[in-house]
Structure formats: structure tokens, C-alpha cells
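Pasting two entries for a bug report.
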Amino acid sequence: MGDRVINITNLALLAIIGAITFFPLYYVIVVSFTEPSEFLQKPFVLLPKHWSLASYEYMLSSKSFIRSIGNSGFLATVGTALSLVVTAGIAYALSRKRLRGRKIFMLLILITILFSPGIIPNYMIVRQFGLINSVWALIIPSLASGWNIILMKSFFDSLPVELEESAAIDGSSDIATFFRIILPLSLPSLAAFGLFYAVGYWNQYFNALLYLNDAAKWPIQVMLQNMLLSANNSDLMISSTAAQAPPSTTLQMAAVIIATAPILAIYPFLQKHFAKGGMVGSVKG
């Protein structure tokens, strides 16, 4: 009886916590699909009587909003691909014991984790390289994370050395071994780190405010911030032929759903890779 009471209590508490956690997302979805006229009459809506896509149609008719989604998509795809190549390459090189100065490189990477130069030095470096007002200012400084490099190095350390020895006997070079043998075995690890990098690039906000002066290059997060600050949504640049704008709240909720939908759609396909161990593949004798 005591165990049953504890289990019921735990389930009840978890259900309450889950409902509290899920409610904000539910409210955002409901408000974004609410008929504008109904929302004006009853601002707090839990279950609308009339569903509508007016807010989404209004948002997707904005050229600046569509452009910001394209900018974030470019950052997420190109930035993630480059970050995975750089992270995996550095981690693989550091995992090879024959690399000269390996301990020095590891020390330098650890220093980047423990100490951060700050906003002003980073801005000076970006300006020195002429990346101000360029989307590459959001990619190049964030190409690799010291923590991710160390984690991926640990994964490469767990791979059997016999794999490389067998490839070397067959005449394979280090680069060919890396791309043909090591990376295929690292797909679960790459998928997990790729999701982390993709979320980081998609959510670029503060660096975009620092380095991008042209509104045409803003990512989606900066556009959302301007929408929240602009009560009349003048920054959407809707054409004069568009219908009357829905309430600003429904537009903001629709924009939030559009901004989070790509990551929410990708995450279920990559979640299974998080639970896999660092050892993928084996040597058959």
C-alpha cells in the first residue's frame, strides 16, 4: 500500500509539472490559430470556436520575414556543416598519439573553455577581419567549441586502432581513412553534435545585433525581437494590397511557431542518437 501511494503521488506530481510545462506551448499554438475577430473579443483563449490561418498567411506574405527565415536557414545548414567538419577534424587529429605537440594543443583548447575574452575583444577581431555586416561573422567565430572537440576526441579515442592499421596496410592515407572509415562510424556522434550546432546557429541573436547593420541580413530571432518591440508591426513591410492586419499578439504567436517548427521537426529524428554509446562498430578477428 505504501509503494502504491508513493507511485500515485509521483505520477500526480509529474502530471502537474508536465501540464505546467506544456501549457505555454499549447497557449502559443492556440492563439496563433485563433480567428482574429474572436481573439479581439476574448483575448484569453483556451479553445477557440473558430480556427484560422490568417496570422500565418499575414506573416508569410512579408518579404522581410521570409528573408529572415532564409538567413537563419543558411546559418543553420552551412554553419552546421562547417562546424562538424572543423570539430571532427581537430578532434581526430588530437586523438592520434603520433601528433607532435598534442598536449600543447589540448592545453590551448582547455584555455578557451576556462577563459572567455569578452564582447569587446571578439568585436575587435571580427572588425579586424572585415566581417562586420556579413553573415560570416555569425559562422566563422563559432565554427568550433572546445567542449565539443574534447567530447568528440574521447569518442575517437574509443575507436580501435586496428581500424587505421588495416586501412594503412591497404594503402589508405590518413585523410582517406578519416572520411571513409572514421566518419561513417561517427554518424551518431555527428548527428548529436550537428543538432547542437544547428540549434545554436538557428538561435543566433546577440551576435547578429552586434555585427549586422543591414536589416536584410537579420536572422529570424532578431526579426522576432523587433516584432515584440514594435506594437504596430511596421517592420514587417507588408504590401499595401494586403488585408487588414490581425492582432499583434496572434502575429507574434504565429511567428514563434514558425521560428521553432524546423528544430522541433528535426529533433525526433536525431533523438535516438543521444542514447548511443561512444563505441560504434567493432573489429572482427
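Entry 2 (this is the one that rendered wrong in the viewer):
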Amino acid sequence: MVAAPRTIAWTACLLFAAVPGAHAATRAAKASPPPSTSANAVQAERDPEALAALDRMGAALRALKQFSLVSQASTEVVLEDGQKIELDGTVTYKVRTPNQLFLELSSDRQLRQLYYDGSTLSLYSPRLKYYAQVDGLHATLGDLVEDAAARYGIEMPLADMFLWGTDKAPKSAIRGALHVGGGLLDGEAVEQYAFQQDQVDWQIWIAKATSLPKKLIITALDDPALPQYRAELHWNTRGTLKDSAFAFTPPADAARIALVPVAVVAIDDGQEK
């Protein structure tokens, strides 16, 4: 027997709790002011080649019509006493532009799935047997990742890949850009770059042949412990994805819960205090 629907705030801490910071670079770029021109400010180098590499990567990402992506990711979580704990997980994406997406986050502690068929956003916990849905969105993927974060607190891991190469990922806040050098990653030639912003430092390894990102490290600077998010990305850009990959059909034993906007939760919390 299916349980009656319950109202629960399904936010990032419930859906994708293991990936704080995964969207940090673009958030910091929007929140940070342009590089300081003060005489006392530390003037970091802005290597034109490093900035051009971001342009090439953005263009390559925007040119993809469909792809699958598997990423082994690790996140450092800082406890109240300052100790850092590393949480590992696997992020799987199936994407067809401009507006279809499947996302799964799997770890020893949780299994979460997100479906978007171009209109309906569905979130599902296979182990807990709960799901939530929002209909009538009709958003592009770039708009979806931003709206999901702003309205529902859902931070999709590696969400920056839907924003790079657009005006949603400005380079104006990058105050330091460095070309570290070339190398090999999984047998593929890559170039490593490092960037500085007011709230984060981040490094990215970009494939020379495809201009797609292969590895990402984000260091949060707003915490003295300097926690990091790390991800290695494995792309499949040649496969064909079916419509069924993005459609969610609730299992008979799953209970539907409400997806409550963050603003509503904040108001309710304020009234309870």
C-alpha cells in the first residue's frame, strides 16, 4: 500500500548532501566584484592563454547535443571541531540539449536521482522510496540548474558545465589565471590551468583533443580549513540517448512528497522561532 503524500522540504541537504562546493566557481564569479585596482591589492597574473582555454572549453560544451558523463567525486566536509572528513561518490549524467537531463548521485550513504524531461522535474530516492515533482518548467538546462539552486536549494554537482560558455559564467571575477602545463590523464593529453577568485581557488584539466574538462578541483577560501571538492570526468559523446532516459515513472511503492521552495521553508522557520 502506498503511503499518503507528506510535505517535506526536499533541499540540497537531503538530495545532494555530498556535493557542497560543486557549483562554487560560478556562484563565486557572480558574487565577487571585479578584480581590485587598489594599490594595496595583490595583483595576480591573468594569463591570456588560460582565459582562452576557458573560452574553448565553453564552446566545446555548448556544441554538445547529447552526452553521458560519469564522475568520481570527493568532497571534504569540515566538522564543528575543525576536522575534515572526505566523502566519496559517483556522479552520473545523461544529457540531451537543450532541456533533458538525468542525474544520479551514488555513494555508500545515499542514492539520489533527478529526471528532467523538458517540462517536469522529478527527484527520487530509491532507497527511501520518496519522490517529488514540479511540472510546467519548460526551462533550458542552464536555467534549470540556477532555478533549482535558487528556488529549492538543489545544488547539482558539476552544474558549471551547463553555464560555461554563456553569460551566466562571467570571467570578469577571475583575478588570477595560470597555465600550469601539459600532461596525461587516463592516457589522454591534457593541459592544466589554475584560477583565483575572491571566494574560491580552482584548477581544471582540459583535454587537448576535445577541449572538454577532465578533472576539477575547487578549494573553498571562506573556511579556514580550506575544504576541497575533487572530480574526475569521463565523457561519452558518441552514444544515443532514448527519451526513456529522462522520463520518471513513480514505482508503485513510492510515496510522493512536496518540493517546498527554500523561501517558504525560511518563512516557516522564522515563525517557529
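Dev reply: Rendering is fixed now. As a check, the viewer should reflect this: The chain has one domain: 6-34+46-262.
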